[in-house]
Amino acid sequence: MSKVKPLYxxxxxxxxxxxxGSAMLSDGxxxxxxxxxxxxxxxxxxxxxxxxxxxxxxxVLREYFDNLAxxxxxxxxxxxxxxxxxxxxxxxx
Length: 93
Description:
Layout lengths: L13 E3 L6 E3 L4 H16 L11 H8 L7 H11 L11
């Protein structure tokens, strides 16, 4: 198993609790983040290069996580290793 590259949260969007290290999204970002995660999964796993929306899912996710891989497949793999996606189902995030 490869070493998981840590994710760094953008402090402008995430509220980080210094006591326990947990992070919560600021108001209004939950739907945008969930949609970007669904879009990245679809774009990284399909064989035809279809886009989910006109806006790059990877670009949106880079606003939330400072050190994502530069490619869609690399970022998807990094987020799977970090546990943001359920590995047992291809339709669930």
